Amino acid sequence: MSETTCEIRTADGTVDGYLFRPESGAPAPGVLLLTDAGGIREANRKLSARLANAGYVVLLPNVFYRTTRPPTFTFRPDFSDERTRKRFAELAGPLTPDAIERDATAFLELLRSTSGVSPGPVGVVGYCFTGGYALRVAAAYPDTVAAAASFHGGGLCTDAPTSPHRVLSRVKARLYFGHADQDRSMPKDSIDKLAAALAAWGGKFESEIYPGAAHGWTSEDSAIYHPAHAERAYSKLTELFQATLR
């Protein structure tokens, strides 16, 4: 596996990020990996490298480039703490639906033009607040994105006019949602409403709840990391990509 830094030009500035390629150098499907609120750090670089070793070219962009370069937090985040919530509001504030679609254009253009990325569809996965981001990327590029996954995604189905679930009508990708059963950002009634919206949408999807999991369970540097559930999440992700990108 090789890891290189990259810069991505967008309408709003220059994004810093990383590209991960399989060791073989053979053409491989492209994957866009979107970080959780903690931004780019060792935990998601390791995950990107693991996906590259499984046979994918992975782009890991700094989705917070308008505000900062890594590290996203200069202190250990704790979302029960006002300082953390204020910092996250600064980071996420510029990521409007329109901004996300503009960024998606640049991310996918770079991924598709990168040496070693095979022709054909790409996949996208988001964690935490980027679960909805991944869904928006799939909606913006329905003929390019064949698979989109969200793990412990928050606020996926709300009454707001900008709720991510409202873009489903534009999505052609196969979808996977892995929910924590102890997640204030996506409680049981919201999970049920999302399931109903997905059923009405009529595309291919899987939505499941991980029992005993809290928001952020997939990240190995989190205090609530759940190794068994994280491993299952990785397996479900690679199964999804295997079924749609190969």
List unreliable stretches of 5+ residues: none
Q: From the coordinates shown, what is the CATH architecture?
A: 3-Layer(aba) Sandwich
- Rg over alpha carbons: 17 Å
Q: How many DSSP E strands?
A: 8
Structural features, described:
The chain is of the alpha/beta class. It has a single domain (2-245), classed as 3-Layer(aba) Sandwich (Rossmann fold). The protein has helices spanning 42-53, 82-92, 97-113, 130-140, 188-201, 227-245; strands spanning 2-10, 13-21, 30-34, 57-61, 122-127, 145-151, 174-182, 205-214. α3 crosses α4 (130-140).
Question: Could you give a quick summary of the protein structure above?
Answer:
With 246 residues, the chain is of the alpha/beta class.
Topology readout:
Elements: E1 2-10, E2 13-21, E3 30-34, H1 42-53, E4 57-61, H2 82-92, H3 97-113, E5 122-127, H4 130-140, E6 145-151, E7 174-182, H5 188-201, E8 205-214, H6 227-245
Parallel strand pairs: 3-4, 3-5, 5-6, 6-7, 7-8
Antiparallel strand pairs: 1-2, 2-4
Helix pairs in contact: 3-4
